[in-house]
């Protein structure tokens, strides 16, 4: 990453920037099958792979897979320290009309509480 700031095509809260710095300065976001609505956001501390897009500045880098970039355009990345468990979340995403209330799964109508694939109770991978 250069010494320039490269802004993603979505908003990033101050809380999310602080958490990216706290977990080592880089977070990768991808999309995978799963969750109660069929697709889920995957947050890791993994390095970029071929085809990924890199945003941010020295000390706080976001790495996005191509599908994550397309899905997140226009949304907001936030970090909820008061959530149980504390976690990143995507809010206000205009590309995911159908989503779980915990904002970790999207793609189809929310089937209701207590689903076996619910992501709301899972901690972040580095916790």
Describe how the helices and strands are arranged.
Blueprint: E1 11-12, H1 14-22, E2 26-33, E3 38-44, E4 53-57, E5 60-64, H2 66-72, E6 76-80, E7 87-91, E8 105-107
Parallel strand pairs: 1-6, 2-5
Antiparallel strand pairs: 2-3, 3-8, 4-5, 6-7
Structural class: alpha/beta
Helix content: 10-25%
Which blocks of ≥5 consecutive residues have pLDDT under 50? none
Query: In what order do the strands lie side by side in the largest sheet?
Result: 4-5-2-3-8
Q: Give the tally of β-strands.
A: 8
Terminus-to-terminus distance: 26 Å
Dominant shape: globular
CATH topology: Hypothetical Protein Aq_1857, Chain: A
CATH C-level label? Mainly Beta
Following the backbone from N to C, one meets helices and strands in this order, namely EHEEEEHEEE
Integer-rounded radius of gyration = 14 Å
Percentage of β-strand residues: 25-35%
Summed up, the helix count is: 2
Q: Number of folding domains?
A: 1
């Amino acid at each position: 990453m250069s010494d320039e700031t490269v802004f993603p095509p979505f908003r990033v809260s101050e809380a999310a920037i602080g958490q990216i710095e706290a977990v080592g300065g880089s977070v990768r976001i991808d999309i995978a099958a799963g969750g109660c609505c069929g697709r889920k956001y995957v947050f890791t501390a993994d390095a970029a792979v071929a085809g990924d897009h890199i945003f941010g500045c020295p000390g706080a880098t976001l790495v996005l897979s191509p599908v994550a970039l397309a899905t997140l355009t226009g949304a907001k990345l936030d970090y909820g320290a008061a959530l149980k468990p504390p976690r990143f979340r995507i809010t206000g995403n205009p590309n995911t009309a159908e989503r779980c209330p915990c904002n970790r799964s999207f793609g189809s109508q929310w089937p209701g509480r207590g689903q076996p694939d619910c992501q709301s109770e899972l901690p972040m991978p580095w916790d």
